[in-house]
Design a protein that fits this description.
With 92 residues, the protein is mainly alpha-helical. It has 2 domains: 32 residues; 50 residues, no CATH class. Strands 1-2 form a two-stranded antiparallel ribbon. β1 and β2 form a beta hairpin. The longest helix is centred in the first third of the chain and has 24 residues.
Length: 92
């Protein structure tokens, strides 16, 4: 591996890390949420390891409340119906 390849690889890794960090700060679908969440309607806590009930939940995170059936995104916000992700700007 040459010095040029090493610099290129480090730049790519840095760009990916910055992208994930910035998306996590914005709480959008590309971010990573490592905290546990609770249902915003009935306050039922969700387990750390979830079982997705839809393709959207499997790809982007989120859960369905076992108590009231509310679908939430990975950040604990109510997911918009018919849309793959809730509006990230409305909940800041």
């Amino acid at each position: 591996m040459t010095l040029t390849e090493l610099v290129r690889d480090l730049a790519v890794i840095g760009a990916i890390a910055w992208f994930i960090y910035s998306r996590t700060k914005r709480r959008d679908k590309w971010g990573i949420n490592l905290k546990t969440t609770a249902c915003p309607k009935c306050q039922t806590p969700f387990p750390k390891f979830r079982r997705p009930s839809s393709m959207r939940q499997a790809l982007w995170g989120g859960s369905t409340c076992p108590s009231c059936g509310t679908e939430i995104d990975k950040w604990g916000r109510i997911a918009a119906e018919g849309v793959g992700e809730s509006d990230t700007n409305a909940h800041k």
